[in-house]
Design a protein that fits this description.
Order of helices and strands: EHEHEEH
Number of strands: 4
Structural class: alpha/beta
Oligomer: single chain
Helix content: 25-40%
Number of domains: 1
Shape: globular
Distance between the termini: 41 Å
Strand content: 15-25%
Radius of gyration: 14 Å
Length: 99
């Protein structure tokens, strides 16, 4: 079983510990911006454990879900590109503990 090519509309998903101003999140922000420009037919999705200063930049290019219980219920906001690409979206999924 090998990898199959992405079909238009297939999401590309990422996971990161946080949205801090450290090396890995900055690299991820650059990658998301590049993919949003060069692969606009693929919605980008990002799951974060904690928010941080790069959160707004992440949200500019990807649908972001934050798991941090200190933030209350998980927040999920579609990216502008994802909103344009898909007229019908699935409802946001709650990632935190039950209310």
């Amino acid at each position: 079983m090998g990898l199959k090519p992405l079909a238009p509309g297939d999401a590309i998903r990422f996971v990161s510990g946080d949205a801090s101003l450290t090396g890995t999140p900055r690299l991820l922000a650059s990658l998301l911006a590049w993919l949003a420009e060069h692969a606009p037919t693929h919605p980008l999705q990002l799951l974060l454990d904690r928010p941080g200063p790069l959160l707004d930049e992440f949200e500019a290019h990807a649908e972001v879900r934050v798991l941090d219980p200190a933030e209350g219920p998980a927040r999920s906001r579609p990216s502008p590109a994802a909103s344009r690409a898909s007229a019908s979206r699935r409802p946001a999924v709650r990632c935190g503990p039950p209310a």
